[in-house]
Each structure stands twice: as C-alpha cells, then as structure tokens.
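Example S7 (structure tokens).
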C-alpha cells in the first residue's frame, strides 16, 4: 500500500468521520522523517564538516576520508532503504547497514559497495557487491555524471539489493559463512573515502523485526538478573556495567545454546572473562572466553581458555569499546571480536546448561560492558 485511500475507504471516511481516516492511515506503511537533514544523522570518526547537507542532498566533502562515516541516529532491525547516488567519474564509497556502535562497520555489519567501474565480470569489489564478500549478479552502474537508484531490503536472513531497477543481490545470509554471524541490528550509514558522492531521495521503512534478544544488562535495574560472588566491585553506571577486583557476577538464568553480544571496554592489560555453561562456585566447571589484552599471552582476548588460542589476535585498543560476539551451539563455540572470527572450536564436551558469568580477575584493572544481551537458541 502507498497510503492512498480507495474509493470504498473514502466513502467510509466521509460517513464515519476522522476515526475511520486515522485507522486507514495506520494500516499504510510508515515512512520515517526527512532523512536529508542533519538531525537524522551524526558524523563518526571524523569532523562534522565531512558531510554537507544542501539542497535536500547529502554530499561527501572531499576533505574527509576513511574511516569517517555518517551514521543514522536510529538503529534498525529489518528495513527497506531506497535512494539515489550521483557518480561523476572515478568514485568509491559505500552504504553501511547493521553497523555497530563501535568497531569497523564493514566487518561487523554490511557494506554495499559504490564504485564507478563497469566490470564486465562482476567482482567482490564491484558496484553492488556486499563488500568484500559477495559479487553482484551484474554491474549496471552509471558513472558519467548520472544519478543511480539503489534499494536495500533486509528481512533477515533475506538480503535483496536493486541497482538502477535491476536485482544485483538476492541472498540468504545464513548460507554464507562470512555473513552468517554479522549483526542483525544496527545503524545505517554512508562511508567517506574522500570522493564527492552526492545522495538524495532517501526513504526508509521499518519492517517487522526478527530479534529475540533477552537483556542481561542495559540499565542499573538489570542488576536484579545477577548475583555477585567473592570480592569484586560491580558498578551499575547507567548503561555501563563496570567490574574491578576479584570475583564473578553470575546470571540467575541458565543457558545451553545461545548467541551473546555486548560491547566491552577495558583498562590496559586488564584480566577477566565471559564464562558460560558454568556453575556458581569456583569448584564447578565452566568455559571461559578470555578478556586479556596482552598479545603475547598464551590466552589473550578472545581465546577459549585452556582449549583454543585466538587466531588472529583481535584489533582492539585499551580503553576503547569493541564488539564482542559469542555463539554456542552443542559442541561448537565461535568468538568474534570487532567482526572478526578469532576462535572457531567444535569440540566442547560439557553440553549441560549453565550460568553466564562475568569475571573480574585483577584488582585495579577495570572492565566495562554495555548493551549485554543473549538470544537463547532452541
């Protein structure tokens, strides 16, 4: 539907008054605000001058460059996003979706590549690719000072992309190993690579969500979902949960198979971990994913302690947020840091449900968590 009343609806409105009109309008697709204005966006990792809003367009300033990007202020689960991009000669850039609060958008979420070259054989870096993983079905970019229409429709796990009215992507992301663990919810964005691309006519529609997350920590009231042990200090600082000292925070609920996701920030050379399928006391068995930013350690950040060292060492920095993702199913454990798989282990032997534990393992070295959530798997 496009929001237009049929003749029958119009007659009903005239007979029944404003209530019927309101009901008819509520059933039509809900378009969001005008997306061609600054209040809908925020600049990340660069100066505010990196993007110019003018004449109902968004323009990339050539003085900006990677990793600067323009991020939507709202997060999206499933969506339908359409618009146009003006390409005048050599140009490169991208449209981000499911982008994270912290971490590289291309690896944590998705990037639809914009490139002026008309490749006869579609490549993973061609215009219309899910960069740099999946080549488009065809390359039909118009590079010579022309507007190009795009449309991205993501109803997880189905990802569809149209470029200039033709289908260039029609994917089930769960069938592509490089995509199956990427974020299913996040921000929309425009990448800057210093090329003066211009965008107009953005329309964005939310689609029904498919997320089944359970909150583990998002606000101080969520401390009721946990119980502390030993002598660690756990501070609920608004949306941030801060750990210091020696001890554990133990979830009330037990989980066997799940996806767990959060953002982590820690002091330099901190020591702690996220544990699963565990008991409440120190004598009980539990698996541990190490949080220890010492690259030369036997089990640095991202490692499955005692079983698998991370490989590669993740791209993280002290006191900066990074995206942490943990997938546990039967005997399989996958760990992703900032969109990169650092452990893929398939020999877990303890398959019983257990608690999630957050570990603080060194006094004076703090670890912080935010947006901590879990998706139990059936």
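Recovered sequence:
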């Amino acid at each position: 539907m496009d929001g237009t009343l049929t003749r029958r609806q119009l007659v009903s409105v005239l007979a029944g008054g404003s209530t019927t009109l309101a009901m008819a309008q509520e059933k039509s697709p809900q378009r969001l605000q005008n997306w061609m204005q600054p209040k809908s966006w925020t600049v990340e990792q660069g100066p505010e001058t990196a993007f110019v809003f003018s004449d109902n367009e968004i323009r990339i300033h050539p003085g900006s460059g990677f990793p600067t990007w323009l991020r939507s202020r709202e997060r999206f689960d499933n969506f339908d996003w359409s618009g146009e991009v003006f390409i005048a000669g050599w140009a490169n850039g991208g449209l981000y979706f499911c982008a994270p609060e912290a971490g590289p958008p291309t690896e944590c979420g998705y990037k639809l590549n914009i490139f002026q070259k008309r490749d006869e054989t579609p490549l993973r870096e061609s215009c219309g690719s899910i960069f740099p993983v999946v080549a488009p079905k065809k390359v039909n970019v118009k590079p010579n000072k022309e507007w190009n229409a795009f449309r991205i429709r993501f109803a997880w796990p189905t990802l569809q992309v149209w470029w200039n009215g033709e289908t260039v992507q029609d994917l089930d992301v769960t069938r592509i190993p490089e995509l199956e663990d990427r974020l299913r919810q996040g921000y929309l964005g425009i990448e800057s690579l210093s090329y003066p691309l211009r965008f107009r006519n953005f329309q964005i529609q939310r689609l029904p969500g498919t997320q089944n997350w359970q909150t583990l920590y998002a606000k101080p009231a969520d401390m009721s979902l946990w119980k502390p042990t030993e002598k660690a200090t756990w501070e609920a600082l608004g949306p941030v949960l801060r750990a210091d000292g020696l001890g554990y925070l133990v979830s009330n609920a037990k989980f066997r198979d799940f996806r767990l996701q959060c953002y982590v920030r820690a002091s330099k050379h901190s020591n702690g971990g996220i544990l699963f399928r565990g008991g409440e006391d120190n004598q009980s068995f539990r698996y541990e994913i190490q949080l220890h930013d010492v690259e030369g350690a036997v089990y640095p950040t991202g490692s499955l302690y005692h079983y698998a060292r991370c490989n590669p060492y993740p791209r993280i920095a002290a006191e900066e947020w990074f995206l942490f993702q943990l997938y546990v199913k039967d005997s399989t454990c996958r760990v992703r840091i900032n969109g990169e798989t650092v452990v893929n282990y398939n020999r877990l032997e303890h398959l019983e449900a257990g608690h999630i534990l957050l570990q603080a393992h060194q006094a004076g070295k703090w670890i912080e968590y935010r947006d901590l959530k879990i998706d139990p798997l059936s």
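Notes on this example. Residues 1-30 form one domain.
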